Amino acid sequence: MLDRRTLLTTALSLGAMELFPGLSFAQARPLVFATFTGSWEEAHKAVLVPAFRKETNNAPIVLDPMLSVDQIAKVSAAKANPPIDVMLHDPGPALTALAQDLVEPFPVERSAAFKELIPDAQDPHGPAAFFQVVGLTYNPDTVKTPPTSWADLWRPEYKGRVGITNMNSTLGTGFMVEIAKMHGGSESNIDPAFKAMEKLKPNLSAVAANPGALATLFQQGQVDISPGNFNAIQILKAKGVPVEFVAPKEGAIAFKTLIQIVKNSPNRELAFKLIEAAISEPVQTRLMQAPYLVVPTNTKVKMTGEIARVLAKDTDDLKKKFVFQDWKTINAQRPAWIERFNREIKL
Amino acid sequence: MALPDVTTYPLRLASPLAVFFTAFFAAPLVALLGLSLRGADGGYGLSQYAAFLGDGFSLGVLLGTLWLGLKVTAACLVLGLPLALVATRAGGWVRGVIILAVLTPLLTSVVIRTFAWIVILGRQGVINSLLSSLGLIETPLRMLYAEGGLVAALAQVQMPLMVLPLMTALARIDPSLWDASEALGAGRWRTFLRVTLPLCLPGLIAGSVLTFAAAISGFITQSLIGGGQMLFMPGYIYQQAIALQNWPFAAAMSVIFLVAVLAVVLAFNALGRLARGYAQT
Q1: pLDDT, tens only, B202-247
Q2: What stretch or stretches form a coiled coil here (chain B) (predicted)?
Q3: Do B123 and A220 touch (CB under 8 A)?
Q4: Which option is the CATH number for B48-280: 1.10.3720.10, 3.40.50.300, 2.40.10.220, 3.40.50.280?
Q5: CA nearest B245 in A: which residue?
Q6: Do residue A35 and residue A76 come from a single domain?
Q7: Closest-approach residue (CA) in chain A for B230
């Protein structure tokens, strides 16, 4: 019999299911891919997702863009039943995820595309889906001679016009390591970089809290030259902001962006298929083209357009022009460096 | 049978909110406390607290944050009290316009209001272009990523939190009290000090507490206008928790920050009681 009480209970439980869909459908959720926010999400939605759907006969997939650190936080908070199946990480966080035992090894032997990757990108814990490249960014309206070296940031004519970020970001840390190397240091000896920063202070106009904030400072004319991410600069350029990117003669810093299967993921097979698509030649070729300009890791991709013009003509050229850093060594000391940056870099 | 007292409500009515608060505020807070007691070696103890409190740099960040809050509160008070006075005393459309001007920023996101300040304070921003076109400066002043600019931006962003409680308190004052004070020979300043100020104290304290709390925890404005080298507690906690994954230390910092803020808020209230006592004698 349908009385008021049963009606209420039914309504309540229906409401609860609506509020917490995970209650009843925990097993059959779609593949969740935590990509990065902004242009990465757009690129993956437009190219990677359709390729994945084609391969898997329209398997359900959800993009849940978030920062690396948030991915790690969410997965490590629910290790047994992770809310994410595929993670995307810069080299530092990728090692953190590995150290916290959040990563399922990539089934290399079943993968056709893995062997086609540049050796540096062949990580058995999850291959590099693309490279992020850091070089010099400048405003061509105010900087008439394009910079050619990291050392140009120290030139007296840029007094009060240089921007950097703090070491919270991969970009900020990678930049400091490169500066250390320029002055005789290395991944295990950051001292020279801090000494060089002391000398850079008169030129510094801004120490931004993150790379995104740094990029907007070009729009405001607050900075005219800074280290910058190739892809972030392309977005600004497309919006009409006067910025140019050059790879310094010391080599552009390249970060492997690793794509990993989450341990205990209920969708391991689909996760494998997504990664397989992400490192395949057709997807990477399409992503390399405008407007995405994602730097490929698959050696079969023929480089064209802006990437060929500014970064590298082919894989061999790329290996020569890119500088890879030893993030294992960096990660071990990074907390101490960030702490030191807090204390020493005060404008 | 005794009739229920109509002036009180059964406590049960508050239970939905109580459940909500227990689940989403009290429980996480307890979890945070527990997390903060985890040492670097995995054991439990007060080592994270000792690390923070024994470190001059960290204490400096804490004091710097509280000091920033006081400066912003003072700025809001100095700018907001006259505005609230004018709005309460003026009638008709002037009052409407002022209320609208105070409320409009609340309808815009903090991020957008903060970006407007980047445009104003930047090297080629409104202020610098004006000063240099007037020939007053040769090289642009550095206001963005400097504390002065940050205080100005935070004060503007948090201004409604100060002005609205003040206006409410001022509106409650019987206008005839002002007339009486003047009729009895008190000048404007004396009337303000002996009548207006004591009577609007509750609003003033409420406004100050709100502004202070919002200013010290204003992560967005602090990071966009203050930049990456000026460290305040919210940014410091974010760095430890998110960039360094050092959750126990970040939890300890949060607890210390919470206690410090509570202490300042209690001090505000004590000050208010003291001032009220003084005003009544």
Answers
A1: 899 999 999 999 999 988 899 888 887 788 999 999 988 887 878 8
A2: none
A3: yes
A4: 1.10.3720.10
A5: A69
A6: yes
A7: A346
